[in-house]
Design goal:
Blueprint: H1 2-26, H2 30-35, E1 40-47, E2 49-51, E3 54-56, E4 59-66, E5 69-76, E6 81-83, E7 89-91, H3 92-112, E8 118-123, H4 124-133, E9 137-141, E10 145-149, E11 156-160, E12 163-167, H5 169-177, H6 183-202, H7 208-218, E13 223-224, H8 228-239, E14 247-250, E15 253-258, E16 261-266, H9 268-280, E17 291-296, H10 303-312, E18 317-323, E19 332-336, H11 340-349, E20 356-359, H12 365-371, E21 381-385
Parallel strand pairs: 1-8, 5-14, 17-18, 17-21, 19-20
Antiparallel strand pairs: 1-4, 2-3, 4-5, 6-7, 8-13, 9-12, 10-11, 15-16, 19-21
Helix pairs in contact: 4-5, 5-6, 7-8
Length: 392
């Protein structure tokens, strides 16, 4: 009997060990992410509008940090049009109102194409308390802010004079909420200025004792899936940076009205390039960086003009359309004048990429020398439409 009890206890211990081990392995801790030379990404949601027990986020900012610091603050417009998990399209702030912080975080991760395992949400009381903990923050208010809305819950009264001043918590909330005549994008610029001031006052280049106290004091006011240890590790990592190390940017969008709703359509190519540069540490070449001169080398009427229009529609810069020195080209050539990657991008964009041959100026020197006088300065590529090439 005693052996059976010991055996049962041993089995329980083993099962508990397996469960605990699985939990530790699967948890996404900040320290572990940074130790793997990956960036820790946190969606910060400042939620200052409360009405009828619903919330609408005023600002969303992705905080991304690496083990060496270099923090990135990437503002995400609240009226950005995004795809939800069910495939439906909606504004990001509506997504937050209906689905909360967790689903909004996964929506932002899908939009940006990166892993965003953490979120932190501050309501107006938390944001006000944070600024007051720091003894206020000093910024320059570029224009007077005056706005009253008795219908808001509670009633909203904003009255901030222009000029350099120290904002207390309540005034900082007004500063963030103010929309003015210029709408959301101008408000994002103001919010970025305030966020940078808060980081500089309370976190950047601060000693670990000060960082630990700030985290301990603000933690009860936060709604987050970060543990207290994770929050401390995150803030401690940011604190190692200087103000000049902080990179600030905004997801680009184009104003649109869809189904009667005003929104921002993401500028996907620019957004992907921004995320690649700031967060992935890589630069993505885009068609808008490739300048092409197009020449008709097969005699087909208007082939150079049609090809130029085709490339412009795909965001390539076309600075020349004309006839080559002969219509006797036996194949289509792409002459790479600058970056071979640009030539490869152009080749991939053509309707029949396998029919185009990439060469250097030396490899086609006789033709290149003949076309050079007609090639504008700053051209990256010469595209010569040869036998059989056409754009229908």
């Amino acid at each position: 009997m005693r052996k059976q009890v010991l055996f049962a206890l041993g089995a329980v211990v083993i099962i508990i060990g397996i469960v605990v081990g699985w939990y530790l392995i699967t948890q996404r801790h900040v320290r572990r992410i940074l130790a793997q030379q990956m960036r820790a990404n946190v969606l910060m949601i400042i939620d200052l509008d409360d009405a009828d027990d619903t919330s609408r986020s005023n600002t969303m900012t992705l905080l991304s940090v690496s083990s060496s610091g270099d923090p990135v603050l990437l503002s995400i417009p609240s009226d950005l049009r995004v795809k939800l998990n069910d495939g439906q399209m909606n504004r990001l702030d509506t997504t937050y109102t209906k689905s909360g912080a967790s689903l909004t975080t996964s929506t932002v991760a899908a939009l940006l194409g990166i892993d965003v395992p953490f979120y932190v949400r501050l309501d107006s009381a938390a944001f006000e308390h944070l600024v007051d903990l720091l003894g206020g923050v000093t910024i320059t208010v570029e224009e007077a802010m005056k706005y009253d809305d008795e219908s808001a819950t509670p009633a909203l009264h904003i009255d901030i004079k222009a000029g350099k001043q120290t904002l207390d918590g309540a005034t900082a909330v007004q500063f963030v909420r103010y929309r003015g005549e210029t709408g959301d994008l101008k408000r994002i610029t103001r919010q970025q200025k305030l966020m940078a001031a808060i980081l500089e006052k309370g976190v950047l280049s601060k000693d670990l004792g000060s960082v630990r106290k700030l985290v301990r004091d603000i933690n009860p006011y936060l709604h987050t899936n970060l543990s207290l240890v994770d929050l401390y590790d995150l803030v401690k990592t940011v604190s190692a940076a200087n103000a000049k190390d902080v990179q600030i940017a905004t997801i680009p969008g184009t104003p649109a009205t869809i189904d009667g709703v005003n929104c921002l359509e993401p500028q996907v190519v620019r957004m992907e390039r921004l995320v690649a540069h700031l967060i992935r540490g890589a630069d993505i070449l885009t068609p808008s960086e490739v300048t092409v001169a197009v020449f008709n080398g097969n005699g087909t009427r208007m082939v150079a003009s049609r090809t130029g229009d085709y490339l412009k529609a795909r965001d390539f810069v076309v600075n020349k359309v004309g006839n080559a020195e002969t219509f006797g080209y036996d194949k289509t050539y792409i002459i790479a004048l600058t970056d071979m990657a640009k030539a490869q991008m152009l080749r991939t964009a053509l309707p029949q990429p396998d029919e185009a041959t990439i060469v250097s100026p030396d490899e086609l020197s006789e033709h290149y020398d003949a076309l050079l006088p007609f090639t504008p300065e700053g051209t990256d590529i010469l595209l010569i439409a040869g036998k059989g090439f056409d754009i229908k």
